[in-house]
Every structure is written in structure tokens, then in C-alpha cells.
């Protein structure tokens, strides 16, 4: 197919669209998301109060943490600000945008070793 300038043009791509969610599906998704946010907030509070330890959380993360950013979790620990957290992640070669479930076994092991001390 040629366009007005005589060049070949590619036909418009057709991308598969996801089907619309029903009202009930949207409500259920919102409830799941709210539950996850509540659990994460509870855990961050426990980390802050010393009732939970970041190394243990990263060794065996609960399912609600799988998509959480490692950076945000470490930041919830007392005495860990942006700079210290960024340094630890850099030392362990972990991107600041990495999620808990996305950690490789090596990254997880090195992070746990650094955070236990």
C-alpha cells in the first residue's frame, strides 16, 4: 500500500485488547489491592518498630510482598535512609526498581547478608 508520498506504508497494527472487566471483577480487584496495601503497611510498621526483621522478610517473602519494591521495604527500616539504601542496593548490584520476587538468588543472598549485620 502506497501513501500520498509514493512510499510504502504499513497497515495499521491491530493489537489484542483485553476484555472489559465486569463491575464485580473490578470490585474484587480493588478489594485484593486494598488488602495487599494494608498488609504491606502493617509490615512496614512492624519493620519500623523492630517487630520484624528485613533480612527474614527478604529470605522468605509473603505473597503480598512479591510485587513490592525492595528499595521501599528497606527504607521502612529505622536508620536506613535513601542514601544508605541506595548504597546497599548498589553494592549488591540490585536496581532500585527491583521487586522482591524479581530478585535473583545471588541478589537475595547478598542483600540478606548485608542487612543481617
Explain what this protein looks like in three dimensions.
- The protein has 117 residues and is mainly alpha-helical.
- It has one domain (23-116): Helicase, Ruva Protein, domain 3, CATH 1.10.8.50.
- It is 52% helix and 0% strand.
- The chain has five helices and no strands.
- It has helices spanning 23-49, 54-59, 70-75, 82-91, 105-116.
- The longest helix has 27 residues, at 23-49.
- It is globular, with a radius of gyration of 21 Å.
**Which architecture does the CATH hierarchy give at level 2?**
Orthogonal Bundle
Note the beta-strand portion: under 5%
Question: Main beta sheet, described?
Answer: none
Global shape? globular
Structural class: mainly alpha
Strand/helix succession: HHHHH
Short recap of the structure:
The chain is mainly alpha-helical and about 120 residues long. About 50% of the residues lie in helices and about 0% in strands. It has helices at about 25-50, 55-60, 70-75, 80-90, 105-115.
Topology:
Elements: H1 23-49, H2 54-59, H3 70-75, H4 82-91, H5 105-116
What would the keywords be for this entry?
117 residues; Helicase, Ruva Protein, domain 3; globular; 52% helix; mainly alpha
